[in-house]
Amino acid sequence: MKQPSLAKLTTYDPNPLLDTVTEYLNVKNDAALSRALAIAPPIISKIRHRKMVVGAALLIRMHEITNISIKELRALMGDRRPIFC
């Protein structure tokens, strides 16, 4: 049985994830967050506006920097799938 894609989940909202990581890293805005995560600023904007989903590489990067578990990071964005596809 195939899992629904992350973008199609009704519970998916990446903003709590981004807000939590922003607060945890004690940065002021999305530009500072993008620098801390070593990604381009438009990626954060696309994720906030749900034009792009949070990918595995970004989740791993967030985990490496914050030491928050992948499971908890997934829960913060509303990903409640039992397995990660």
Describe the structure.
- There is one protein chain.
- With 85 residues, the protein is mostly helical.
- The chain has a single domain, classed as 434 Repressor (Amino-terminal Domain) (Orthogonal Bundle).
- The protein has helices spanning 15-25, 30-37, 41-48, 56-66, 70-76.
- Helix 1 (15-25) crosses helix 2 and helix 2 packs across helix 3.
- The longest helix is centred in the first third of the chain and has 11 residues, at 15-25.
- It is globular, with a radius of gyration of 12 Å.
- The termini are close together.
How is this fold's topology laid out?
Blueprint: H1 15-25, H2 30-37, H3 41-48, H4 56-66, H5 70-76
Helix pairs in contact: 1-2, 2-3
Task: Write down the domain tally.
Answer: 1
Instruction: Please tell me the CATH architecture by its name.
Output: Orthogonal Bundle
The rounded Rg comes to 12 Å
The DSSP helix count reads 5
Percent in strands: under 5%
Unreliable stretches covering 5 or more consecutive residues: none
Tell me about the biggest sheet?
A: none
Q: Say how many strands there are.
A: 0
The fourth-level CATH homologous superfamily is: lambda repressor-like DNA-binding domains
